[in-house]
Amino acid sequence: MNVVWFKRDLRTEDHIPLAEAARYGEVLPLYAAEPSVWGAGCLSARHFQFVRESLEDMQHSFEKMGGSLYTFTGEIEDALEAIYETCGGFSLHAYRESRSEAEVQKHTRVREWMTDRGLAFHEYEEYGAAGKNAKQRWEAFVRSEAARMPSRLFMPEKIPDRFYSGSEKLKSLAALGSPIKFGQQGGEAQALETIETFLNERAASYLENRSNPLQSTISSSRLSPYLAWGNISLRTVLQKTSIKIENCDNLFPVEQLTAFMDQLKVRWKLMEGEVEAISELCLHDETPPLFDKWHEGETGIPFADACMKCLHKTGWLPAKYRGMLASFGIAVLKLDPAACSEALASLFLDYEPSIHTEQMKKVSLKVVNPVKIGKTEDPDGVFIKRYLPVLERVPVKYIHEPWNYPGFFQLDYQAPVIDLKKAIKRVKKGTEGKNKPSDSEQLSFDL
Question: Is 164 exposed, middle or buried (0-12, 13-18, 19+ CB in 10 A)?
Answer without folding.
Answer: middle
